[in-house]
Write a structure and sequence with these properties.
Blueprint: H1 2-16, H2 21-34, H3 36-43, H4 47-60, H5 78-90, H6 114-127
Helix pairs in contact: 1-2, 1-3, 2-3
Amino acid sequence: MSREYAERRIKEAIKKANGNATRARQQIIAWTMEDTKLLDALTRPHLNGIVAYNVERVMSGRSNTKEEPVPEKPPLGEDEFGIEILKAVAASDATIFGRESSGSPMAKRGRASKQHIDAIRQMASKSGVPPKKS
């Protein structure tokens, strides 16, 4: 019964949102705040995974992180906003849209040490393939 109930409510949300999936999702989330039966129907198949994840998170100590409040910046005036945009455009280290990396920036490749070069040559000599002459 609960799966049918959830599907019926989802269809109702899609119809109410005129086929817009984003609005339908938002409507369903809003309904789950009031309708525990709907929330139960949606989450029951995933409850084991949700609980397992949270138990592991607490056991590993990741739950001890405290969220620090983000300090609010005063709203920029019209002139200040334009200056901030110009600074971002002119910055040499500004990220280019679509080329952001989630990790830290990679360091430039340095020269290989003599020990490293000798080790590679030793491995190459044991492989039996003659080295290329350049």
